[in-house]
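In this section we walk through a basic example: taking a raw amino acid sequence and producing a predicted 3D structure, encoded as C-alpha cells. The instruction is simple. Fold the sequence below.
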Amino acid sequence: MKQGWEFKKLGEVCEIKNGGTPKSDNEKYWNGEFKWITPKDMGKLSNKYVDETPRKITALGLQKSSAKLIPQNSIILSTRAPIGYLAINTSVMATNQGCRGIIPSNKIDTHYLYYFLSKSVELLNSLGTGATFKELSSNVLANIPIPLPTLPEQKRIVAILDEAFAAIDKAKANAEQNLKNSKELFESYLQSVFENKGDDWEEKKVKEIGLAQTGTTPKTAEKENYGDFIPFIKPADVDFSCVGDIRYNNEGLSEVGLRKSRKMEIGSILMVCIGATIGKVGFAEREVSCNQQINSLTVKKEFEQKFIYYVMTSKAFQEKVLLEGKGAQATLPIINKSKWENLTISFPKSKNEQKMFVNKFDALQNKTKKLGTIYQQKIKDLEELKKSILQKAFSGEL
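The resulting C-alpha cell sequence is shown next.
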C-alpha cells in the first residue's frame, strides 16, 4: 500500500443507518414531508445523485417504523434486491429496509467513499447472505476494510476520477448514439423502400401469400412431449438479438410432442402475437414448432420468403399489427390468427425484384451488425476501463 495510507473498517469512519417501512395501509404514515427511497427507486436513477423520491412519509410514519433520517451528502446503498445500487443524497431522506445510509465522518470524503463502493459492488454481493435473496447486513458492511489516504489525497483522487469518468461517459454516450444511428440507418432505408412502391407492386392478404398457423403447446405434464427432436420456440426466442434471429436451443419437442403441435418449415416467418413484445419477427432458418403466442407464415414458392419477412418488420405492417392488437384488448394487446392473416402486404410482382431488394437489405443489415459489434465492444471496453481506473485508484497507483 502507498506510504501514508492506512486501512480502516468502514464502521470506523462512517455511521451506518438502517431503513424501514411504515405500514402501507395507514394513511397517517404516508404523503408527508420526509423523502423515502427504495432499491427499486435507486435502480431508476440516471446519475450518482438523488434529491427527490417518488414517495414520502410523515413524521408519525418515521416514528412508527425503523426508518432513520440520513443527512445530505451521505451515501445511500441498496443492500438487498439487489445489492449495490449507489447514490449520494443531496437532501435529507429516509430509506426502506432494503437500503442502508452510510454517513461519512470528517475522516473520509463522500465522493471518495462513493467511488470505493462503486469499485466494491462484486465484493458487496459476495458478502450478502440469504436463501430467497441475498442481503448485506449492517454488521458485515461495517467490517469492510477501506484504504484511507489523507483527506487532501482523497480529494485529489476524486478530482482525477471525476475528470476521467466524465470523459469515459461522454465516449460511451457517443458509442451508444452511434449504435442507435446504425440501427436507424437500416430502418430508414427499409422504410423508404416500402413508402415508395413502384407501379409494378401489388397487395395481397397474408393468407394469400402462404400458410398461416398459430402454434400450440403440448401438455407439459406429459414429459414424453419434450426432447431435442425439433426446437420449440417461445416469444423470448424470437428476434432475441434484434436482427430477426431465432434462438433454437432454449427448449425442444420430441417426435411425440411434435405430433401434438404444429411444424413450421425452413424459411417460415414467426411473429409474436400477444403482450408487450407483440410484432417481434423472426426468420426461421430451420424447421421449428412454436407455442400459441406466436403466429407463423410459411410463404408460397412464388414469393421470396425473406422479402416477406422484411415487409413484416416494416413500420407500416407493424402499425397494422399494433392497431389490431390494441383494438382487441386494451390491457393486453393481442392479434389472433384470423385478424393477422387478413392483414395486407405490398410487394413487387417480380420475384427477381423481390430478391434484388433482399440482397440490398441483407447487405445493409450485415454492415449494421458489424457496426453494432464494434460499438458494443467499445461500450464494454469503456466499462472495463472504468474498473481498471478504480482499481488503480484504491491501490495507490493512480
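Looking at the output, two observations stand out. The chain is about 40% helix and 20% strand. Residues 151-198+350-398 form one domain. In the next section we compare this with other chains.
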